[in-house]
Amino acid sequence: MIRFDNVHKRYSDGTHAVDGLDFEVEEGTTTVLVGPSGCGKTTTMKLVNRLEEPTDGTVYYDGTDVEALEATELRRRIGYVIQDIGLFDHMTVGENVATVPELKGWDADRTDERVDELLDLMGLPPGEYRERHPSDLSGGQRQRVGVARALAAGPDVMLMDEPFGALDPITREELQDEFIDIQREIDTTILFVTHDINEALKMGDRIAIMRDGKLVQYDTPTALLDEPKTKFVEEFVGPDRTLKRLRVLRVEEVMRPEVPDEYADIVDAFQGNDAVVADGGEIVPVAPTDSAQVALSRCIQAGVEALPVVEDSTVVGVVTESAIRNRQSEGA
Amino acid sequence: MLAAVSFLGELLSFAAENAGRLARLSYEHVAITLWTLAIALPVAVSLGVVISYYERAATVVLWVAGVLMTIPAIAFFGVLVPVLGIGNPPTIAALVAYAQLPVIRNTYIGLTQADDAAIEAGTGLGMTRLERLRRVRLPVALPVVMAGIRNAVVILVGLAAIGAFIGAGGLGDFIFYGISAGDTAMIVVTTVALSALALAFDYAFGVIEQWLRLRNGEEVDRAVLTRTLAAVHARLS
Ligand SMILES: Nc1ncnc2c1ncn2[C@@H]1O[C@H](COP(=O)(O)OP(=O)(O)O)[C@@H](O)[C@H]1O
Ligand SMILES: [Mg+2]
């Protein structure tokens, strides 16, 4: 969807911010660009929507050189969440979200409907928030408005530059989790920038690690954890790789899509009433999108070997502690 | 004490006897002021917008507008009367010149107040330069521009009195007449009317400025009238 072909960006003061970038953001994926501050992530992102022009090489958008596309047209097709949010404080929340639809000339009814739909999606009930000004909102809420504004015209591609960077850790986790759900719903190609490797591992289907304007490794989260290609990547990923692998492993990757007899009682117990006391405590089911870490810790808490996997209030299978263990030892 | 009371009585009786003429002169005065604004504002706001894009022109334009303010009205008339004749036209032309500095300056300052991040977001979302001006920079600047207009209007109301000197009418008529006739009551009453007019304009534009700030989501201490307007607005919408 977005392809970088030997792209260089040298700023007029001589800073070589992007130094020979060669990679492709595949359609439908969330690709995370991660690396230390100043490594050229923001610059890379701006090369996509032409806020910066490459000094060498070519950026392709859906097969076309971006230089050949009209800049404002291109930008209206790409949702953009900038590093400092940049909400229009003089407008209401609703007007902020309506920005791109209005630029595109949608009629008022369609725009209004879309604004309400997005505010709902972002957990900001329109009745309460549409007419408010951004200055009345908390950091997390402002960030949600920024994301809603970028999503408004149903872009093919989203560029998100450290969208949760300025938030406190709890709010950040919350927004990450919500965004993972939203991501499934909207199904667009996302290029996501962060300097936080944990965020990258959590959000990304693919992770591109950058250093000094160069790409040092481009892989899936699991591959990155299993085989860091350089010392730098190994250090950047950090020491507790086993634990991190548990976090990136999703329940759906290790679950059994049926309920074997040996675990029938656990599922029965869960279905009989919602607060069953096992050896240790209550059995809390997991969702297919939960991480193996969540599943494991709930197994341990409840003192059981398996947990029901529940989607839309129905049991769709089980996940067992041993399946998680086996997968872990394969990787290591 | 007695003298003061009798002087006050004199003022009141003058005001009562001449209420009709005072009202007519006030009306002329307001008309001159509004005509001046109608011409001066588009010019000054456009100049403010232009110099916000061309930093180097900014210094020159603001300097020239500053110099205009230092030129005495009489000197303007000396140049303008041979060209425009007497009465309203040369008066309004001179006043237009005086209105430039406060409005250009505030437009220029107001336009630089939009947050850099908001400008970048605007660009990134696909606004053209003109759309950024219309949707982001101007709305943010508007209350500041309005403060400049308010400033200009107060100056204009005072200065417009000079127009009577070349036959433009307005409250200046009574002041000049009072001076030549040595009629203190006439001078005092007219001056009070003039001040009241300036204060009324100041207040009205102050309310508009506050309303613009409120609309932009800024925190303001609301004047009574603004509160009333906000209440009416809330009821209507
Ligand atoms: N407009 C600019 N002019 C000159 N240098 C810049 C500009 N923008 C960024 N840089 C420099 O380019 C490098 C990469 O910056 P950036 O892309 O913002 O990195 P990151 O987003 O990874 O922190 C840094 O050294 C930064 O100082
Ligand atoms: Mg950055």
From TrEMBL, chain A:
Entry keywords, A to Z: ATP-binding, CBS domain, Molybdenum, Nucleotide-binding, Transport
Bilayer-crossing regions: none
Annotated EC: 7.3.2.6
Catalytic activity entry: tungstate(in) + ATP + H2O = tungstate(out) + ADP + phosphate + H(+)
Entry-linked InterPro entries: AAA+_ATPase (IPR003593), ABC_transporter-like_ATP-bd (IPR003439), ABC_transporter-like_CS (IPR017871), CBS_dom (IPR000644), CBS_dom_sf (IPR046342), P-loop_NTPase (IPR027417)
Enzyme class: translocase
Cellular localization per UniProt: Cell membrane
One Pfam match: CBS
GO cellular component: plasma membrane
Protein name: Molybdate/tungstate import ATP-binding protein WtpC
From TrEMBL, chain B:
Domain (ABC transmembrane type-1): residue spans on this chain: 30-205
InterPro entries on file: ABC_transp_perm/SBD (IPR051204), MetI-like (IPR000515), MetI-like_sf (IPR035906)
Main localization of the protein described in the UniProt heading: membrane
Membrane topology listed for this record: Multi-pass membrane protein
Gene Ontology annotations of biological process type: glycine betaine transport; transmembrane transport
Transmembrane segments: 31-53, 60-80, 86-104, 152-179, 185-205
Keywords: Membrane, Transmembrane, Transmembrane helix, Transport
Cited SUPFAM superfamilies: MetI-like (SSF161098)
Signal peptide boundaries: none
Cellular-component GO terms for this entry: plasma membrane
Family, as annotated: Belongs to the binding-protein-dependent transport system permease family.
PANTHER family, sorted: GLYCINE BETAINE/L-PROLINE TRANSPORT SYSTEM PERMEASE PROTEIN PROW, OSMOPROTECTANT IMPORT PERMEASE PROTEIN OSMW
Protein name as it appears in the record: Binding-protein-dependent transport systems inner membrane component
Biological classification of the source: Archaea, Methanobacteriati, Methanobacteriota, Stenosarchaea group, Halobacteria
